[in-house]
User: Fold ATP-binding cassette domain-containing protein from Actinomadura physcomitrii.
Amino acid sequence: MTGDGAAPALEVRGLTAGYGGMAVVHDVTLSVGHGEIVGLLGRNGAGKTTTLMAIAGFLGKHEGEVRVDGTPLRGPAHKRSRGRVGILLEGRSVFPSLTTRQNLDLASVDPDVATEMFPELKPKLRLRAGVLSGGEQQMLALARTVGRHPSAILIDELSFGLAPTVCERLLSRLRSVAESTGAGILLVEQGVHYAAGVADRVLIMNEGLIRAEMPGAELIAREEEIERIYLGGLDDAA
Ligand SMILES: Nc1ncnc2c1ncn2[C@@H]1O[C@H](COP(=O)(O)OP(=O)(O)OP(=O)(O)O)[C@@H](O)[C@H]1O
Assistant:
């Protein structure tokens, strides 16, 4: 769902990155259109989080180029996050001792905008974030990220530690966020079923390389093939 003739929300070309001079992800090229959700799948240690961290600017020197709305993104994470890239890392990105409203204020997000997106948060504005349920904390974290109107949103394991019904609700909200804001979302997921339910397109990573790409709608039917890619077999990958 890329906007007419517009540059993709997020474009990554030839990204090679890692830790302490050792490359962990190699030559990653991907793009995410406006309003599109792209899943990044792979088994533990495949390099998914490293890819997100490198795009966001958390890792030091690396090769390759990251563009948001066609403009190259450079510098450290705090510069990249100024309105252009939102990142939601694994775990709950909220301040547990502050209230829900204070969490939103700190991110300069209007509580009315946040509660329109996530009505569940409305009765919780005065509560400390630490007492919210896991799903509500993720909604708050998402609201803090989305409310800054980034063009590209990077999300690591939204479903982490949540019950399946809560995950499904959150993922359906993610779809509304993509559609209503036009942001391009790159979503790291372990669960094939969750990714199938929300991603327009999916990239499958193994040993730091993107090995296959397929529509989200084909994920379930191609689950065996995906398992083989997870385990290192490359046949059938297309
Ligand atoms: N801070 C770090 N220093 C050195 N190596 C790291 C660091 N973080 C991750 N790695 C290594 O980089 C590789 C890729 O890790 P990464 O966290 O990107 O994988 P992942 O696909 O996100 O896995 P998971 O699904 O388990 O989170 C792994 O071999 C990991 O051990």
Observations:
- The chain has a mean pLDDT of 88.
- The pocket of adenosine-5'-triphosphate is lined by residues 19, 24, 42, 44-50, 190 (CB under 6 Å).
- The longest strand covers residues 22-32.
